[in-house]
Amino acid sequence: MYQFKSFADIGLLNISFTQPEKAKNMKLTPAPEENQDHAAGDKVYSYLFQDVRAGDEKEFKMKYDRIETKPTTELNNAVNIDKKKETKNATHLAIGAFGGISVLSAGTLTILLKKRKRKQSTGN
After folding, report:
1. Are residues 13 and 65 both part of a single domain?
2. CA dist 121 to 64, 108, 110, 118, Å?
3. Tens of pLDDT along 83-120?
4. pTM above 0.70?
5. Closest to 23 in 3D by CA, of 1, 41, 46
6. What is the DSSP letter of 33?
7. In which region does residue 79 sit, left (phi positive, over 0), alpha (psi from -120 to 50) or beta (all else)?
8. Are 50 and 7 in contact (CB under 8 A)?
9. 60 & 25 share domain
10. Are residues 62 and 83 in the same domain?
């Protein structure tokens, strides 16, 4: 059971629930009017209320099936760490490739300029 008690008058109130990672058959009571899928694949269920007065209460029940014992935040942190490692490796690879190409380009340019100088000095 989740309960919200307003401590002040609120013109527009948005209460959102995110489906826990690896959860199935999630059911909210009362049924939400809005269900959104975000880019990360999270299912977010929202309730919108207008003109909520101080002291008003909203109650929600959430049920779902889940075998995973780790909290969603811990699972998301593990995924984020893996993504950071992948990004870091890709960045290092890009920097290495750019650096290698730059060195080859500078070497080729130096050789061409030396050849041109030799031709000009022998041609005069």
Report:
1. yes
2. 84, 20, 16, 5
3. 666 666 677 777 878 778 888 888 888 888 888 877 77
4. no
5. 41
6. S
7. alpha
8. no
9. yes
10. no
